[in-house]
Amino acid sequence: MALLVREIYASLQGESSFAGQPCTFVRLTGCDLRCAWCDSAFAFKGGESMSVAAVVKKVAALGVPLVEITGGEPLLQKEVLPLMTALGDRGFSLLLETSGAHDLSPVDPRVIRIMDWKCPASGEDRRNLESNVALLMPDDEVKFVIADRGDYDWAKGELERLDFARRVRHILFSPAGEMPEVPGEIRGHPGLAPRLLAEWILADRLPVRFQLQIHKAIWPPHQRGV
Fold first, then answer.
1. CA contacts within 13 A on the Cβ side of 30
2. Domains in the chain, start-ordered, CATH in brackets?
3. What is the enclosing helix (H) or strand (E) of 67?
4. Which of 23, 38, 102, 202 has the fewest CB atoms within 10 Å distance of its CB?
5. Contact at 8 Å (CB) between 76 and 70?
6. Residue-level pLDDT, tens digit, the chain, 226 residues
7. CA–CA gap between residue 213 and residue 143 (Å, rounded)
8. CA of 200: how far to CAs of 73, 150, 152, in Å?
9. Across-strand partners of 115?
């Protein structure tokens, strides 16, 4: 079986505790969520059918030791599991960017899972799969995209309720960016001023990492392949 691949490219990692490091991105096509602030709706459709071996070959040719598998939602494609194992066997350091809506248990243990725990303003918080929380390892990361004060207060409650700080080293709080509506795909969202989120975190002394998408400060926000 093959993978449907939207793009493979080398860039700088823009988020997570790996921000700023050179990284190869393997973006798979398809997502079963429609978050209001989604910035990768272009990955819902299209792409090229590629075998696991072909993807590994292209990644190896780019010559970057850190690789992120992303989407869309990469866990929708079952061949992503042997892909991650094949890349791990080749010695690559691996990140998986995934929502909290799909079972993490089959993922190769060498992969660092960056789990996007959906807040209410995304419109997809009901999809969070709580069985994933017990599967988290210390090197995994949990990300909250915060769109308003309601999201922030909800995320604080989730930190306490699910004890994320005990489970993982890095909890990421990101302000949602302004996104226009994509007819038939996403509703769009006005975004959240980064300064507001920074001030809320400081006021509450939360044990989280504030982050911005640094690739969008380097290249135009909608530029592909960066």
1. 12
2. 3-218 (3.20.20.70)
3. strand 66-70
4. 202
5. no
6. 799 999 999 999 999 999 999 999 999 999 999 999 998 999 999 999 999 999 999 999 999 999 999 999 999 999 999 999 999 999 999 999 999 999 999 999 999 999 999 999 999 999 999 999 999 999 999 999 999 999 999 999 999 999 999 999 999 999 998 767 777 776 767 889 999 999 999 999 999 999 999 988 888 877 787 7
7. 12
8. 30, 12, 8
9. 98, 142
Chain position carrying tokens 């505790």: 17
Copy the structure tokens of residue 15: 């988020």
Inter-CA distances, 100 with 32, 73, 86, 139, Å: 12, 10, 24, 16
- With CA atoms as reference, report the closest residue to 174 among 151, 158, 205: 151
Closest to 114 measured CA to CA, from 192, 59, 174, 194: 174
Tokens of 138: 């210390």
Hey, what are 182's tokens? 């994509």
Look at the block and give the residue holding tokens 């920074």: 198
Residue 100 amino acid letter: G
- The residue type of 91 is G
- The residues, any chain, with a CB within 8 Å of residue 127's CB and separated by 6 or more, are 33, 99, 100, 101, 118
